[in-house]
Amino acid sequence: MTSKYQRGFDITRDSLRIFTQRPTLLVLPALSLLAVGSAFAVLGAIVFQQGLVGSLLTNDLYKYGVLFCAIAISSSVATFFNAAVVHCAAQLFDGNPTSVREGLAAAWRARRQIALWAVVAATLGTVLYILDEKFGVVGSLTRMVFDVAWALLTFFIVPVIVLDERRSLRRQLRRSGSLFRDTWGESVSATLGVSFVFLIVALPGVALGVVGYFVLDGVVGVGALVGGGGIVVAAIVGSQTAAAVVRTALYRYATTGEHVGPFESRDPDTVFPES
């Protein structure tokens, strides 16, 4: 078991090491968090300014409309910046120079596909929420099954949007699903490894924030809350970056058979063997 955790750490370390070639690229996931936070702040301000807080609790139309907007905002912004990371990672894999501006330009070129993807994701997310809310256990089970299936189907959607020539969302989803089917073991194992590592990183931040809120007072308490929040945010940024690099490397492996990035010196087929 320990060796599996060690392999997860190694994959994460080698993924982030890619960006030591261009440390400024770590700005991209940080910008993603900032943009999502700012967008939600604006959405929240509109809700409060228009006096819609009460309506969100009593009017389904308002509630589902705000939910749709929230999912669309988070999906579009996160996908946009992840697309920039994917482009830069692919360039670094090939030994080519790249930059934040170049990554953002690549994401901007795919803005229509990203926007369409966000609308589809928001629509599906809202429909599944309604099913969960209105149909009890059956709705909850349906949502759970579709959430898992959707996550697997769209595992490679960002690399496909950025690096593939397909422009139809239907073809992009088919391509993503096909690539995941061909590499499902490697994809799930590597992703779980990265997630586990950053969960461990985030836990001290969560603990520090809890202590700051419930135990400490005054400036010390505020400092603990800020420090804990900073650790959690850093873990989220690192997780997003490492996950994008891993998926880009797995995309390259699935499409060309090349071992690049975190898999340059290891076989993705044996990243997490069962024994």
Helix content: over 70%
End-to-end Cα distance: 9 Å
Content of β-strand: under 5%
How many helices does DSSP assign?
11
Classify the oligomer: single chain
Q: Taking Cα atoms only, what radius of gyration do you get, to the nearest Å?
A: 20 Å
Per-chain topology:
Layout lengths: L1 H16 L9 H23 L3 H6 L1 H34 L6 H10 L1 H24 L1 H18 L3 H7 L5 H14 L1 H31 L3 H39 L19
Helix pairs in contact: 1-10, 1-11, 2-4, 2-11, 4-5, 4-6, 4-8, 4-11, 6-7, 10-11
Describe what this molecule looks like in 3D.
- There is one protein chain.
- The chain has 275 residues and is mainly alpha-helical.
- Helices cover 81% and strands 0% of the residues.
- It contains eleven helices and no strands.
- Helix 1 packs across helix 11 and helix 6 packs antiparallel against helix 7.
- 31% of the residues are buried.
- The model has no long low-confidence stretch (mean pLDDT 84).
Short description:
With 275 residues, the chain is mainly α. The protein is built from eleven helices and no strands.
Features:
mainly alpha; globular; single chain; 275 residues
